[in-house]
Amino acid sequence: MTGVDSAGSVGLVIPFVEVFEEPLTLACGRTLDRFELVLETYGVLNADASNAILICHALSGNHHAAGFHSRDERKPGWWDVAIGPGKAIDTDRFFVVSVNNLGGCHGSTGPASINPATGSPWGPDFPQIQIDDWVESQRRLAQRLGISRWAAVIGGSLGGMQALQWAVSYPDWLDHCVVLASAPRLSAQNIAFNEIARHAILSDPDWLDGHYYQNDRIPEKGLGLARMVGHLTYMSADGMSDKFGRELREGSLGSEESDAVVFQVESYLRYQGAQFSTRFDANTYMLMTRALDFFDISRDHDGDLRRALANTTASFLVLSFSSDWRFSPARSQELVDALLAEGKPVTYADIEANEGHDSFLIDVPGYLPLFTAYMARVGC
Amino acid sequence: MTGVDSAGSVGLVIPFVEVFEEPLTLACGRTLDRFELVLETYGVLNADASNAILICHALSGNHHAAGFHSRDERKPGWWDVAIGPGKAIDTDRFFVVSVNNLGGCHGSTGPASINPATGSPWGPDFPQIQIDDWVESQRRLAQRLGISRWAAVIGGSLGGMQALQWAVSYPDWLDHCVVLASAPRLSAQNIAFNEIARHAILSDPDWLDGHYYQNDRIPEKGLGLARMVGHLTYMSADGMSDKFGRELREGSLGSEESDAVVFQVESYLRYQGAQFSTRFDANTYMLMTRALDFFDISRDHDGDLRRALANTTASFLVLSFSSDWRFSPARSQELVDALLAEGKPVTYADIEANEGHDSFLIDVPGYLPLFTAYMARVGC
Question: Which residues does the entry assign to the active site, renumbered to this chain (chains A, B) (predicted)?
Answer without folding.
Answer: 157, 324, 357
